[in-house]
Structures are given as C-alpha cells and as structure tokens.
Write a structure and sequence with these properties.
581 residues, 41% helix
Length: 581
C-alpha cells in the first residue's frame, strides 16, 4: 500500500495515511468558496461539512442545536415527577455511577435543587464492594427513606434493584445500551433504549440530565414560574461529555464550546480547585477536561472514596473544594502508579498474543478493577483495535473495554451476556464493562473478536497514522491555530488534525528530562518552528532525531499554542517522523 509522501514505514514503524481524494476535493471547494486557510478547510471536509454549512459549523449555537427533550421517551413524565417532588418537598435520593459522567450528572441535579432551596441524598456505590449500578440492598435502603430515587448514568439494566425499591418512585436518566425489556421504573429516559430512534445516541448521561432540566424549565414557564439558570450548568455537561468520550458531534459540540466559556469564569468552586491542583493557568480546553480534570474526578471512584468526585463538583464551599481536590490529586498519583504496573503486564501479554486480531485483550490476577479501563484505552491506542482488560480474582473476572470509531463495543458485549458467555455486561458504543467466569474467558474473548470483526474491527493497520495534509512553518501561526480550533472541539468522533511538515532540517535538538525531546526545525527558506516530542526516548524517535547528522525529515503531529512569558507561538507536538528522500 502506498503511504502519504510514500511513507509505508516511519521511524515508529507506521504507515502514513493521507486524506481520501474526495476529502481533498471538498477541502478545495471550501477553500475557494469561504476564503479560509486550506488547513482549516481540510478539517471541515473531513467532518463532512458542505460549503453552505461552514459558517454555522464554525460558530455552533446551543439554541440551534439543542434537541427537543420531549423527543426522548419518558422525558415529559420524568420532568413532571421531578417537579412534583420539588413542589411537595419530597425526599429525593440520587444514585450515581462512580465515574465523571455519573458525578457530573449528580452535581447537575444537586446544584439545580440547591438553587430552589432543596437538598438531596447522594449515593455512589463502591466500585469493588458493590460494583457498577444499583444493587438490591442499596435501593431498598434508599426507598425506605426517600420518596423519589433518580438513577443517573446507570439503571437501564437494573431490573432487580429497581423492583427492590419498594415504596419509592424510580426515575432513570442514563445513556448505556438498553436490553429487550426495561426495569419497572416510573420513567426510563435513555437515548440508547432499543425503542429509541438513535438520533441522540451520542449524548452522555449528563447531557440527558441537562435535557431533563430543560424540560423541567419548560414546564415551569408554562406554569408561570421561573427556574434556575441552566446555562451556568454547562461547565459540568462539557466536562462529562469530553471525559466520558462522547462523540463531539451535534449538540455535544455546542455543550463543550459553551461549557468551556462558562468554566473560564471560574465560578464553580469544585472546578476551580481541580484546575488549580492540575496547574491549569490558561483558559480551559477540551484537553484540560479530558486529561487534567477528568482523571482526577475519576480517581475517587477508581481507588478511593467513590462519592468524592461528585461531592467536589457539587460543593459551593471553596475551602471544602480545595481539600477534596487535593485528596483527589493524591489519589490520582496513586492511580498512576497502580496503572503503570498493570499496563506493563497487559501490554506484554497483548503483544505476545498479537495486535492483528479484531480484538486486543489481556487478563491478569489481582489487576485493580479501578484501572483496567484506562489500560484498555492504552491498548486500544497502541493497536488501533477495540481492547478489553480484565482483572481476575477468585475465579471471576471484572473487566472494561474501549472501542474505536465505527465499532459498537457495548452492543457486542451485551450480545455476549445474552448468549451466556458473560455473567453480566453492558455499556455504550465506545466503552463497556463486563463480568466473566474465568473458565469462560477464552471462549468469551474469541466470540467477542468474531462479533467485532463483523463490524469491521481489525481491517485497518494496527499502526496507521492518519494525516490531514501538508503545512509549512510560516503558515503555522497562532492565528491559524485559533481558526482550526473553531472547527473543534476535538476528541472522540472528531480527532484533532495532524499535519506533516515535509523535508525539514533539524536545527536544534535537546533531550528534556529522561524521556522527552525538544526540537527546532527549518524549511531552508527562513521558515522555522519549535516542536516537542513527549516520550520520544520510549521508542526510536528520540535517538534518531537527536542524532540527525544533518539529514532531513518529514515531521508529523498536531500544532498547538505555546505560551511563554505572555507570548504565544505555534508549536508542533511531534508524534512521528520519517527520513525525507
């Protein structure tokens, strides 16, 4: 196969894949019609944006993209019961999942209720002792003390636990794949119910909760009342959308764009404290949400106190927020250490098994269930395949999986559970969880690989590097980066664009710490640019580029703003390189 610029094996062994011909043609048409830089038009073309849509796409408005909440089944009923609880001062309990999506969903409801003078009980199950989702004992106990239980980011498959909640109404606000039947709850609002159209399947749970609050606001206006300010809650929705790896398409783009603006105001104590412990000193970006804030919120549910993240996001006390954020930061450091050991073992096992199959998986005794999902993400990135990582204990395995674009892992996992190869399992397109009898592990993974192959998993090269086009150092300006960012935010379903700087001469190379490399390169005509390559010495890039010997290279990566002493410049975050010529 011919690679982009003829590169079939880069320094890291990857095939470079350029944009398809039809994307190049569309980019050219956009460039001619809009006058935008070619690099921006390449991003728009890859997203399928037509010429008449370009202006609106670059400035997404929530009012234009927000769907009618009543388009989801049971939504009107859920909002009506929620408002009735507020009106009657019912005792409300919120049962939330232990991850960022669950925590932000709970915080949305707690914040809204606090604005109308009400409090609610927060219950987050322990990952190890209770596992994912509602359980009979917890639901029965909550029902004995509350009139309404709202399950967020969980509950769609919880038939038994919902039945155990005798005497209380149960409302489920979720996004995980539904089964053939639903629990006997008062309302199950979920865009991934089997009887839904799927038009809003990209929403995370916090997006569903936000839509319920939109519907509640509509009902309040009809009744002549004014509800809380919903726009101020979008910082939480943005965090959940990015951290839960929801596709950044449709209304999710508007949620994140608007939410980042709200977050920049530093009005929510929990998010301010998270930014401070994460040393975020610039305006927040999607990267901040996914790689700085999200992992810290998740750390409580992974290896610490399960409700810590939700309580941090919901608190209005800055000193309490600082204390909780510092604890989560400590837990996140501990999580990294645990993750590192599991990742090394899982990667070695997966590599020995091979990266060519439709599914990459690994399982090990004693692997902490709080980190298997993160390690699955690492395997997925390394192999460009759906990945499953399972921790084994006492003959049972608890695992987590991550998928690639276009492959519905949650549906395949649910199919496996239905076939009896798993004790339980579910999730959504990009992520899933499972429990498996160790005796069934090998046949379960073989069957899962077979199901994923039917969806097209395993067809791409394990190490293909997808590129959006060529760029020159003079063109890579802060202004261009700002224009490219207008086509974002980038993340799941909308990968950040990668460009190649072709035939470049390295004029400066310096090792930074043990693993990283700082570069400066030139095109030979006066155009030059800085680059940073994180983890360069974990592979062949560091030694090859530091000892370049005057040779020229094609350099591939993402361009970003670098701020130093108040001045901004463009910088290449280098991901790969290949000898030129």
């Amino acid at each position: 196969m011919t690679g982009f610029l003829g590169i079939t094996q880069s320094l890291t062994g990857r095939l470079w894949v350029g944009p398809p011909v039809e994307v190049d043609r569309q980019a050219e048409a956009l460039e001619q019609s809009t006058g935008l830089p070619r690099a921006v038009c390449q991003v728009l073309a890859r997203r399928g944006v037509e010429v008449p849509e370009a202006e609106a796409f670059l400035a997404p408005q929530l009012r234009d993209l927000l769907p009618d909440p009543r388009g989801l089944r049971d939504m009107e009923l859920a909002a009506t019961r929620f408002l009735a609880a507020v009106e009657r001062r019912d005792r409300i309990a919120i049962f939330a999942d232990y991850d960022v999506d669950g925590g932000t969903s709970a915080a949305l409801l707690l914040d809204w209720l606090r604005q109308v003078g009400m409090e609610a009980t927060l219950y987050v199950p322990d990952r190890i002792d209770e596992g994912y989702g509602p359980n009979d004992e917890a639901m029965a106990a909550l029902a004995a003390e509350h009139d309404l239980i709202i399950c967020v980011d969980c509950g769609t498959l919880s038939h038994g636990p919902v039945a155990a909640a005798k005497g209380a109404d149960v409302v489920i606000l979720d996004h995980h794949l539904g089964g053939e039947t639903l629990p006997d709850a008062l309302a199950v609002v979920n865009p991934n119910r089997q009887d839904e159209s799927g038009d809003l399947a990209h929403l995370c749970a916090a997006g569903v909760v936000f839509l319920m609050l939109v519907e509640a606001g509509r009902q309040m206006r009809v009744a002549g009342r004014t509800g809380p300010d919903l726009i101020s809650l979008l910082d939480l929705v943005a965090l959940a959308t990015v951290a839960d790896v929801a596709p950044l398409v449709g209304v999710n783009r508007a949620f994140v764009r608007q939410g980042l603006k709200i977050m920049a105001r530093r009005a929510r104590p929990g998010l301010v404290a998270l930014a401070d412990v994460g040393r975020v000193d610039t305006a927040p970006t999607a990267y901040t949400l996914g790689f700085v804030m999200g992992p810290r919120v998740n750390a409580g549910g992974r290896i610490g106190k399960a409700d810590l993240g939700a309580r941090l996001l919901a608190t209005s006390d800055p000193s309490e927020a600082r204390a909780m954020a510092e604890r989560l930061d400590q837990l996140n450091t501990e999580r990294r250490e645990i993750e590192s050991a599991v990742q090394a073992a899982a990667m070695a096992q997966a590599e020995a098994r091979g990266f060519d199959a439709p599914l990459v998986w690994a399982a090990g005794a004693g692997w902490h269930p709080g980190v298997v999902g993160i390690v699955a993400s690492r395997l997925k990135e390394a192999a460009n395949r759906p990945a499953i990582v399972i921790g084994l204990e006492a003959g049972m395995g608890k695992g987590s999986g991550r998928s690639i674009s276009g492959v519905d892992l949650g549906a395949a996992i649910q199919r496996l559970a239905h076939e009896g190869l798993l004790e339980r399992g579910g999730g959504h397109k990009m992520a899933a969880g499972l429990t498996v009898d160790e005796a069934k592990l090998e046949p379960a993974m073989a069957r899962l690989s077979e199901l994923l192959a039917k969806q097209g998993a395993g067809q791409g090269g394990a190490a293909d590097l997808r590129l959006d086009g060529l760029l020159m150092p003079r063109a890579a300006t802060p202004e261009l980066i700002t224009q490219i960012e207008a086509a974002g935010p980038f993340g799941a379903g909308a990968p950040s664009p990668r460009y190649v700087f072709a035939n470049m001469q390295i004029t400066f190379a310096k090792r930074v710490g043990d693993r990283h490399l700082k570069l400066r390169f030139s095109d030979g005509t006066g155009g030059q640019m800085d680059a940073i390559c994180f983890g360069a010495y974990d592979g062949p890039l560091g030694a090859a580029l530091e000892g370049h010997g005057g040779a020229r290279f094609h350099l591939a990566g993402r361009i970003e703003l670098n701020t130093w002493q108040g001045r901004q410049s463009a910088q290449l975050r280098l991901e790969d390189a290949a000898p030129a010529g």
